[in-house]
Each structure stands twice: as structure tokens, then as C-alpha cells.
């Protein structure tokens, strides 16, 4: 990532912390789609990058991912449980609520706001560990979405932050998406007019990135909640 893209990424990610915290978690699919036959349930947990801040529900990545899965012959329901402005501590505080959605798989993408606030990466790692442990105790397959901070935040911090996700994935034997925003971060043409959140096209790329990891999780998951 060059300096220009890095600066744009910092600006874009910084705004995640200022997004409306009151935005409720919401299902990605309309009610009538829930009546369709499903093989299982995926719950997408995260901040505004998951919630799809500024877009209609059907343009956020969980809804786009569900469409891609169905096109691939995998009729899995994908629930959008993203809340804008949330840190990993906030995600941890509602992990038991996530379980009430009866997920077979959770795609966990959280921590960007931790990095922007300079929270000790050890705190983020501890929160991720506790969330993963709780989910796995309930036989939920976890896909972990990796996040990165740019060098502007300091080389030591950047390295420590980036190391959190592979460390947690290795410790818990998780499916790891190396960088959730691969191909989208730092590209103004794939972000909304505010230069902050991905457009529908940006989320199409995100969904394409997530798809093979979701399929891998499906292939190793006996449906429990679907």
C-alpha cells in the first residue's frame, strides 16, 4: 500500500469510530427470504464495515454474500449483526445475544476502531479470544476477518495490531481472511462520497473476498441452527 493509499485508509477507518452507535444490528435478508429453504445460518458480526453504513441493507456485504452463496448452490441465510462504531469490547459484550440468532457460522470482523483509538492490541486479542472461545463452546464455526493499520500509527503499534488476527486464528484453529478490505481500502472509486465507507461495488469486492472462506466454513460445518 503506497503512502497516498495509506493516508486514505487512515481517514476512512478513522470515521468508523464516529459512526452512529445507535444503529441496530439487522438481518441482511427481507422477511420473505427467511421463509425460503436454508441449509444453515451465518451471522456476520462487526462494526460499520459489516453493518453497511450509508447503504441499503441489500447492498451491505452480508446480503451480497448471501446472494453469492445461493448462486453457488449454497442456500445459507446470512444475518447482518453489524453495529456502527463498535469496538471489540462492544462485540464481546453482545456475544451471548449473537448466540440467540442460532448461528452455525459466525464471520467476525472487529477491531478497526480499537486500532484507531490506540487501544492496546493485547486488549483486542483478549477480546477476540473470549469471543471465539464462547462461540466454539457452542459448536459455532468462526471465520475471522483480519484488519490492518497503516504505518502512520507507528511501526511498533502497526505490527502488533496486524499480528493479533493470525495469532488468534492459529491458537483457535480458525479460518482467517488475511485482510477483510483487500482491494477496497484506499480506493476512492470504491468508497462512498464521504470517502469513508465502501460503495455497493466496494462491498461486491468484499463479498467476493469473503466468499471462498465462507464456503470453506460451510464445508466443514454440520448445520445446527438452520
TrEMBL record:
Molecular function in Gene Ontology: cobalamin binding; metal ion binding; phosphatidylcholine lysophospholipase activity
InterPro entries cross-referenced by the UniProt entry: Cobalamin-bd, Ester_Hydrolysis_Enzymes, SGNH_hydro, SGNH_hydro_sf
Transmembrane segments annotated in the record for this chain: none
Domain B12-binding: 45-191
Any Pfam family: Lipase_GDSL_2
Organism domain of life: Bacteria
PANTHER family: THIOESTERASE 1/PROTEASE 1/LYSOPHOSPHOLIPASE L1 (PTHR30383), THIOESTERASE 1_PROTEASE 1_LYSOPHOSPHOLIPASE L1 (PTHR30383:SF24)
The name this protein goes by in its record: Lipase
Organism: Geobacter soli
